[in-house]
């Protein structure tokens, strides 16, 4: 095993995960927030946005092996590719990076968050939400999606021979198939839950949402506690149909990953 600078290792994971969440959360915000130029871009735009976010995150975090996901770190630990200290350092950096990326995304779309009246839509930029709420089946979907992600990533990385701590070990040729994999998982398995498939990507932004001074935050928490918040996709589609004068559908028509993802 190569000698590893743990400081660079930590920074690599933090920066890579922050990049992932900034761009991944950004595409969700662009599609669902009020007055955004990308409003209504739909599922495929979000899937591709998350895929390209993964591409960027991998490129800037090659020193640590571009793990960016506690599930990947667990697999590397089990495979003996990283030690226990590296494992805990990586997942800590991933959580911090996810939080930082979510904050940067909020700053980039601050005015649109202020203009957006719907509480669930604003929350949807930070967190995933199931189309049909069933904790058991939602868990099954996430486990399957996460397994596919990790299993195929190991195949991309020369059947698990990931060079942790070697600058440039995971470059553009690895980043491209991983990005396409995330797009594919979103298109195939993202419908039921919005495909978090990454605990750091989901938890870090939720913490950011709870802390940030988002306009209407107090009312937002009350509304969500009362159970009035449907999936943002349903609300987004209802708003579009109201604007066109059509009747709003009773069920969400466009499932999509929300931050932030969707990897």
Automatic annotation (TrEMBL):
Keywords: Membrane, Transmembrane, Transmembrane helix, Transport
Bilayer topology: Multi-pass membrane protein
Transmembrane portions of the chain: 6-33, 45-64, 84-109, 135-157, 169-191
Main location: membrane
Keyword Transport: yes
Molecular function (Gene Ontology), one example: glycerol channel activity
Subcellular location: Membrane
GO CC list: plasma membrane
Top-level taxon of the source organism: Bacteria
Xref: PANTHER family: AQUAPORIN OR AQUAGLYCEROPORIN RELATED, AQUAPORIN-9
Family assignment from sequence similarity: Belongs to the MIP/aquaporin (TC 1.A.8) family.
Protein name per the record: Putative glycerol uptake facilitator protein
Lineage start: Bacteria, Bacillati, Actinomycetota, Actinomycetes, Micrococcales
Gene responsible for this protein: glpF
């Amino acid at each position: 095993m190569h000698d590893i600078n743990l400081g660079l290792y930590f920074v690599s994971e933090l920066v890579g995960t922050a990049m992932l969440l900034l761009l991944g959360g950004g595409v969700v915000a662009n599609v669902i927030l009020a007055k955004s130029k990308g409003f209504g871009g739909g599922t495929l735009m979000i899937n591709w946005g998350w895929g390209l976010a993964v591409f960027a995150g991998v490129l800037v975090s090659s020193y640590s092996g571009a793990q960016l996901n506690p599930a990947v770190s667990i697999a590397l630990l089990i495979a003996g590719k990283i030690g226990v200290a590296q494992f805990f350092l990586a997942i800590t950096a991933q959580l911090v990076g996810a939080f930082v990326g979510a904050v940067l995304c909020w700053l980039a779309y601050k005015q649109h968050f202020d203009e957006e009246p719907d509480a669930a839509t604003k929350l949807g930029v930070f967190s995933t939400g199931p189309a049909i709420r069933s904790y058991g089946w939602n868990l099954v979907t996430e486990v399957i999606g996460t397994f596919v992600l990790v299993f195929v990533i190991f195949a991309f990385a020369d059947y698990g021979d990931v060079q942790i701590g070697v600058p440039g070990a995971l470059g553009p040729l690895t980043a491209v198939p991983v990005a396409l994999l995330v797009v594919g998982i979103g298109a195939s398995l993202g419908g039921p839950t919005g495909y978090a498939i990454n605990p750091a990507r989901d938890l870090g932004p939720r913490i950011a949402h709870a802390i940030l001074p988002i306009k209407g935050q107090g009312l937002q928490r009350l509304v969500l506690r009362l159970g009035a918040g449907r999936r943002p996709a349903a609300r987004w589609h209802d708003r579009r149909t109201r604007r066109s004068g059509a009747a709003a559908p009773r069920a969400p028509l466009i499932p999509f990953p929300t931050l932030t993802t969707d990897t």
